[in-house]
Amino acid sequence: xxxxxxxxxxxxxxxxxxxxxxxxxxxxxxxxxxxxxxxxxxxxxxxxxxxxxxxxxxxxxxxxxxxxxxxxxxxxxxxxxxxxxxxxxxxxxxxxxxxxxxxxxxxxxxxxxxxxxxxxxxxxxxxxxxxxxxxxxxxxxxxxxxxxxxxxxxxxxxxxxxxxxxxxxxxxxxxxxxxxxxxxxxxxxxxxxxxxxxxxxxxxxxxxxxxxxxxxxxxxxxxxxxxxxxxxxxxxxxxxxxxxxxxxxxxxxxxx
Length: 256
Description:
By secondary structure, the protein is an alpha/beta fold. It contains six helices and ten strands.
């Protein structure tokens, strides 16, 4: 690994800001740890980011100055158990000072209409067409093999985490609050703010998913000011970075 030394503050340390897309981290980790569903969720986010930076960055004097966790409140109406467990975790993060900022977006429930489809080998949608023994016929009684089946489904999704990650990243970089930045996400929507930040500070990108790093988030270590790096989070990183249990009087949820 090529070492990179950047300018640091008067204190002689490289102040690192960490910006986390909570849902991207959660679902990425969930699939990473599918064979071991317990023991990884009670994440100490400051410890996790500090460990990865120390092992992967090559940055001299790097200290995690600021951890920003961007997420959204789960709907208690749709998922009361999940909402209760999330509330416990957020309180534990605050009490343990594992994060400096919890920025909340919105969690919305809605219905969506779309053509029925299956996945191909690369996970891309393949629209389902009629075919015997289920066939669609027109008013003349002729087969309509090109017809489509439309379904209405309920969807629950988070809104705003990517925007909040981008906003905090850019504000901190432009204000000089940090000397380097780490983003934990594999959301290609973050292409512009991360590319912009790389021209001002070294940036580390931690991919929490099993997928390849999104094309828009790739680049070269020498881009902009240089000193950038990429890392794909591993289950061992998660299991090794757990909060104490309990945190004060806050107990980890039993299934976690």
